[in-house]
């Protein structure tokens, strides 16, 4: 590889493309595949987001992809939804606080690696989400998870919010495990005195319709876990996805889903025979912005 003064992101990635099957070469192949799927109008793009990627800095990137029509379905964890709402309600994710964890707990702070949240932000979150839940319950007391998240997004006043942008652009958000989050805890507490019911299986028919109505499906998988499996398994009845990119830090030896190579999905008919698959091992907060910037530049150049 050669580094030149003033080179663009794409030019750097193209230099990486000559390094074979090592990490740099995988970054190039992932960039090429991402550029292909986001410009293909016949391909529905499922973005799967696990881990704390909203506090990790990807909130605006995901929001802009939704606004720009580069994502057709978002599948994510309850944690990312909660942290999106935390910022939508005026809270922040903080850096640069150097205290031990026991002292942070005493001061009302929670730590995510080198990021921190404050209890006062979650107090505002609890107050605001309780108002939204009450408004939702007054209109409808039986909803699917997707319907529930769409209604929350429609009630927000933050144009930078992932939930609001998705609701405004009719992009469905699926979060099958969202109950395992602060939002899920607040929902459980709210339902103790109300008839509001969230149907965990209610999304399956709608998601299956999206799969069957799409000529092709590509998944962009950031991390692993439940969002990854939901994105792949939803395509099982149609023989699997046509293309997939996975960015993960997990290893394959333990048999974990997060570390499973995408080729393994072919044995389950979650990825089609002949599907285009690229796995990049690394931190999604570093690699995904890089390949997305490269893919956008690649598509822009192809139009010039």
UniProtKB/TrEMBL annotation:
Its EC number is 2.5.1.46. GO terms for cellular component: cytoplasm. It holds the Pfam family DS. Keywords: Transferase. InterPro entries: Deoxyhypusine_synthase, Deoxyhypusine_synthase_sf, DHS-like_NAD/FAD-binding_dom. The keyword Amino-acid biosynthesis does not apply. Transmembrane segments: none annotated. GO terms for molecular function: deoxyhypusine synthase activity. This is Deoxyhypusine synthase. Belongs to the deoxyhypusine synthase family. The keyword Transferase applies. It comes from the Archaea. Signal peptide: none annotated.
